[in-house]
Amino acid sequence: MFILQPIGRVSSPYKDTQDIPKGLGAKHEAEGVLEIQPEFEAGLTDIEGFSHLIIIWVFDRSQGFELLSTPPSDNRPHGVFATRSPRRPNPIGLTVVELLRREGPRLHVRGVDMLDGTPILDIKPYLSSVAMESLRRGWLQEAEVRRDK
Ligand SMILES: C[S@@+](CC[C@H](N)C(=O)[O-])C[C@H]1O[C@@H](n2cnc3c(N)ncnc32)[C@H](O)[C@@H]1O
After folding, report:
1. Whole-angstrom distance, CA of residue 138 vs CA of residue 135
2. pTM above threshold 0.90
3. Domain count across the chain
4. Domain span including residue 13
């Protein structure tokens, strides 16, 4: 077992999961603020130099998990670890956001898909090293092909 302490909360325009864009082609362009607790502010030193950040957070309003489910982007079931479902054995979310600016312990970002008040566990700079031509997107790519037929 692990005990994790949130380092802050997301201030998001989304108050209800229904408000968050879902499904194939959904765009996440909403702006929000990562409100980091004052005792962790020194940990943000030098973060301004990064254009994008990985946010690791908790699906704090999800209950239980399903090992197989049909995501909004397909009409076929997939295993939880092949999806980004909020209902997972360890309810951990991961979102890549664009850093717009920092005001002390507040990071203004674009691309939030979390509910307002979501607890943040960690922040890391985004450093992609996978070339586009090496990426395979599995069932998601197949669902896009079926949609476009
Ligand atoms: C498909 S998940 C993807 C989240 C993240 N980008 C990831 O890949 O882990 C996004 C959905 O999680 C749900 N969600 C967002 N914030 C949540 C929270 N704090 N608790 C529970 N569900 C949440 C919403 O329904 C939202 O549309």
Report:
1. 9
2. yes
3. 1
4. 8-148
Contact criterion met (CB below 8 Å) for 78 and 139: yes
Q: Do the domain assignments include residue 1?
A: no
CATH of the domain at 69: 2.40.30.70
Give alpha helix (H) positions in the chain: 138-148
Helix (H, G, I), strand (E, B) or coil at 110: strand
pLDDT per residue as tens digits for the range 87-110: 999 999 999 999 999 999 999 999
Mutate to test the pocket of ligand 1, among 9, 16, 20, 137 (most ligand atoms within 8 A of CB): 20
Locate the ligand 1 atom nearest the alpha carbon of residue 85 and give its number: 1
At 62, the pLDDT band (50, 70, 90 cuts) reads very high
Atom of ligand 1 nearest to the CA of 62: 21
Residue 52 lies in a domain: yes
In one letter, which amino acid is 105?
P
